[in-house]
Amino acid sequence: MHLPDGIVPIEFALAGYGASAAMAALALSRIKALPDPDAEIPRVAMLTTVFFAASLVAIPVPPTSVHLMLAGLMGVMLGWFAVPAILVGLFLQAVLFGHGGITTLGLNGVILGLPALMAFGIWRIGARRWPDIAGFVAGSGAVMAALAIFSAIVLAGLPVTLDASAERVALGVFLLAHLPLAVAEGVVVMALLRVLRRVEPRLLPHV
Amino acid sequence: MSDPALSPRARLVIALVLAFGIAAIKGLAVLALAVCLAAGVALASGQARLVLRRLRGVAVLASGLLLALSLIVGESVLARVGPLALRQEGLEAGVLIAVRLLSIVALTLALLAPLSPFQLVGALRGLRAPALMADLALLTLRYLDEVSGELRRAHLARRLRGGRTGWRTLREHAGVLATGLIRAQARSERVWAAMRLRGYNSGLAMPVAPLRAMDWVCMGGALLAALGIIWLDRIF
After folding, report:
1. CA nearest to B123, candidates B41, B185, B208, B61
2. DSSP string covering B124-187, please?
3. Which residues of chain B have pLDDT under 50?
């Protein structure tokens, strides 16, 4: 779900940096209000490392295989820390692997960060009474939200000379192709949260 | 890792400035200049082989975009092969996007991939990135290899024990991931204890060295190059 470099107009890339900076500033202000934010850094870093490594693993989902996005799970488990963790992960991917983009880092931060915060909200509201449903909706909802933001950015960034209807058809196919990922991610997040609730509930806030 | 000729902070600024300069190109006329710039940076940094190796995956993506846009987008048909039509507008858009993408990734890798994690995070701190994000980056880099290895071994063990296939693997993958997260939680408690014992006080990154004359010259040169590319693009 990353936008690579060179694909969107420069104005969008700069606006993306502005939006991500605002999102990061909001998240950091919420984090500073915690009793001991420094104590959370090792936990967030270790969990981020797991998410980073896990997203590189291909999981067979017939007829193909998918790489889990895990933005929803990051939102559920990290809360406001998900935003700096996602931005750090995107920066490291762009610099170390040439994956994602350095000019589109801001936009990619929005594509993944907003759904992570949405998943955090869903979990906070639904975790106590409907944990399985909240987990599934957080996981798959984050994927759908990221797809929607990604598609909106690509469509809005189309040069006027290009045929918008052809691009819309291509995006429609792209969205349909990602439906199995959304379902797979919802199932994985729900099953994972079920295990953690039983074995290590300290990893889950708001339960 | 030895001190690079250019400071890490200068490298990061140069990478960002040149990347945005190339991303701002809207026409085909100056694309060759962007390619020359990226190639020049890769050769000057001594990382040409590394860049070519790491560009393979990106080249596949760029080719895919070029092909898709050439066949789907546009009205003016340049050539036909059976039901497939090569369209001029799509080809131009595809070439523009592909060259921008490859040039930006090449110069980013050439400038930043040789830096050690400490130097990279130091560069971020030097550009006033929040200490929390810099420390997150450093700890993530420090433990990434270990955690990746653990997850790989866990997935291999699952397969060797006759793990299920198809949709039924999802619950097993969730279990492997849950185990990884629980181990990460336990490791983080040990790391935090060690950090406190060593007197951690918001800032793991090394102190930021001041910029040298060479750094300023190169950053200025990069800014001029980026502005020059944009100016040439606008007039041609």
Report:
1. B208
2. HHHTT--HHHHHHHHHHHHHHHHHHHHHHHHHHHHHHTT---GGGHHHHHHHHHHHHHHHHHHH
3. 1-2
Longest dimension (CA), chain B: 71
Q: Do A28 and B130 touch (CB under 8 A)?
A: yes
Helix (H) or strand (E) holding A78: helix A71-78
What ipTM was predicted for this assembly? 0.86
Extended beta strands in B11-155, E state = 77-81, 84-87
Residues near B95 by Cβ (< 8 Å), separated by ≥ 6?
Answer: B28, B31, B66
Would you kindly state where each structural domain of chain B is located, as residue ranges? 8-115+209-235, 122-197
Interface contact A41-B90, CB threshold 8 A: no
Residue A60 parent element (H or E): strand A58-61
Chain A residue numbers with beta carbons less than 8 Å from the beta carbon of B19 are: 5, 102-103
Residue B182, chain A, CB below 8 Å: the answer is yes
3-state SS assignment for residue A203: helix
Interface test with A, best of B13, B127, B181, B192 (most A CBs within 10 A): B181
Distances (CA, A) of A113 to A26, A85, A129, A146, A175: 12, 9, 26, 9, 19
Beta pairing partners, B165: none
**If you average pLDDT over residues A145-170, what whole number do you get?**
78
Interface probe for A, chosen from B41, B76, B188 (most Cβ of A below 10 Å), is: B188
Q: A181 falls in which pLDDT band (50, 70, 90)?
A: confident
pLDDT at B103: 95
User: Does the structure show a pLDDT above 90 at A59?
Assistant: no
Cα separations in angstroms, A207 against A71, B19, B77: 19, 44, 60
Higher pLDDT, A157 or A198: A198
